[in-house]
Amino acid sequence: MENYSWVVDPLSAQASLEKAQKLVKRANKKGLNGGYSVELIKKVNPENEAVYYEIAVTGTPYEIGGWTFVGVIEWVPETELFITKSSPNYEGAEIDRSLVKQNACDHCGTNRKRNYQVVVENAEGERKVVGSTCTKDFLGWAFSPSFIDSEKDLEESFRGYSSGGESPKTSVYILETALVVINEIVGGYVKSGNTGSTKDAVIDYDFQVKEESDSRYYGPKPFTAGLASLESGKYTAQAEALIVEGRKFVADKSGGYYDNLKVALESEFAFPSLIGLLVSIIPVLKKVELEAIKAKAEAEKRLEIEGEVTIQTQFAETGTKLVLNQAKVVGIHGFNGAYGWVQIFTFIAEGARFKWFSTGGFDAEIGSTVNLKGTVKGFDTYKDANSTLLTRCSEVKPKLTKAEKEALKEVEWAF
Ligand SMILES: [Zn+2]
Fold first, then answer.
1. Which of 112, 139, 162 is the last residue of a domain?
2. Structural domain boundaries, residue 284
3. Burial label, 28 (beta-carbon count in 10 A; 0-12, 13-18, 19+)
4. What is the rounded end-to-end Cα distance, in angstroms, of the chain?
C-alpha cells in the first residue's frame, strides 16, 4: 500500500512529527475501525548525500458500520464552489465532482445549507454523501470535519509540500539562483538590512521565474534577465561546489548559526526557513578564502623577516661605520616628512634588522639583496620589531677582478 507522505522542513521536522501524531491520535477514536499512525522518514539522495525528511502516514481510512470514509466535500461559504479532500491512503476512485450536489444529504434527503458533506462507501462500492450534521444519525458517530484530517489538512498543517503538489526547490537550484542574482542582477552580495537582502532578492527572482514559466502567460516575455544562465546550468557546478565546501567549513563548528547552516547544507530541499542560511554560505566562504590569502601573505612576510633576525639589540655602537654584504631588502615604505618625501628601507643582514630613513632615494626592490655601507645612528622598536638605525647609506659596487674588468670592456666595445 502506498503511504501518503510529504517532505517537511528539516529544522522543524521533529515538531511536525509530534503535531501530526497528535492530530492522528485525536482522530483515532473508539468505535472507528482503521486509523493512522505517522512517522518521520529520513531519505538520502545517493548522488550528493543531501538528506530530506518526509512525514509518512501509514494506516487505512476510518470505517464504521461497514462504511468507509472516502473524504470530505468542503463548500466555500456563500458560493457554489467546493473542494474535495480525500482520506489519507484511500485507494478507491476519487470523489466525482460532477455528482456533487450542494446542500444535499443522501441520509435525510433534505436540502439545506451545509458547509461540509462526508462521502462514505460500503463494501459493495455504493457511495453516500451525508451532511455533516447527519453523520451521527447515519453512522452512530458524530462527525466533525476536524476529526478526520484529510491529506490536504495534514499537509497544510505544516505548510509542507506533498509529493503530488509543488515540490520545494532543491538547495542546488536555490544557490544557482543566488549566483545569478549576485552576478547578473544585483551585482554583489547584499547584507540583510533596510534595503533588502540577497535572500529576498533570490525569493523575488524565483517568484518571477515561476511567473514566467506559467503557461497561461501569453505575449512577449518582459522578464529575461539571467534566465539563460539559469536554464543553461552556468552556475550548477559552482552551486554544488559551494555545498561541498560549505559542509567542510561547518564540519568542526557548532553553535546556533552553524548548527542551522549544517542542516541547510545537508538538506536536499531549500525550505523557506533554510533559504537565508543557504545563501549566506556564499559570503562566508568568500571571507574564508580572503582570510586564507591574507594569512598566507602575512605568514610569508613573517617567515621572511623573523626567520633571519636573531639579534634584537643594537647591532653596533652609534657612529660605527658598517659594510653589510648581501643585505636583504624586506620593506620599503614612504611618508611625507618635514623635509619632503622620506623612504624607509628595511634590511636584514648578519642576523639583525636595519632601517634607513632616506630622503635621497635608493634603487631597490623588496626581496632583492644589496651590498650596503652606512653609519649606525641608533636603535628603535616599532610594532615589536627591533631595528638598528642607519644613516648616510649607499650601495657598495662590487669590486671587479682584473679579468672581469677586461670582459666588461669587451662588452662595452661591442656596442
Ligand atoms: Zn441529512
1. 162
2. 171-290
3. middle
4. 96
Tens of pLDDT, residues 283-314: 899 888 888 888 777 766 765 665 678 888 99
Residue position matching grid coordinates 472507528: 32
Same-domain pairing of 393 and 255: no
Distance 92 CA to ligand 1 centre (A): 24
Residue 301 in domain: no
Rounded to the nearest angstrom, the distance between the alpha carbon of 155 and the centre of ligand 1 is: 29
Examine residue 297 and state whether it is found in any structural domain, yes or no.
no
Q: Are residues 316 and 390 in the same domain?
A: yes
Ligand 1 center from residue 144 Cα (angstroms): 14
Residue 20's H or E segment, with its range, is helix 13-27
CA of 35 to the centre of ligand 1 (A): 25
Please return the burial class of 411, using the count of CB atoms within 10 Å of its CB with bins 0-12, 13-18 and 19+. exposed
Q: Is 137 found in the same domain as 51?
A: yes
Ligand 1 centroid to 109 CA: how many Å? 6
Cell readout for 275 is 533559504
How far does the centroid of ligand 1 lie from the alpha carbon of residue 88, in Å? 25
Q: In whole angstroms, what is the distance from residue 114 CA to residue 132 CA?
A: 8
229 and 357 part of one domain: no
Q: Could you report the per-residue pLDDT of 172-210, keeping only the tens digit for each?
A: 999 999 999 899 887 777 776 656 788 888 888 887 777
How many angstroms is it from 132 CA to the middle of ligand 1?
8
115 alpha carbon – ligand 1 mean position (Å): 12
CA 75 to ligand 1 centroid distance, Å: 16
267 vs 269: CA distance, rounded Å = 5
Report the predicted TM-score, pTM, of the whole model to 2 decimal places.
Answer: 0.55
Tell me how far the alpha carbon of residue 106 lies from the centroid of ligand 1, in angstroms.
6
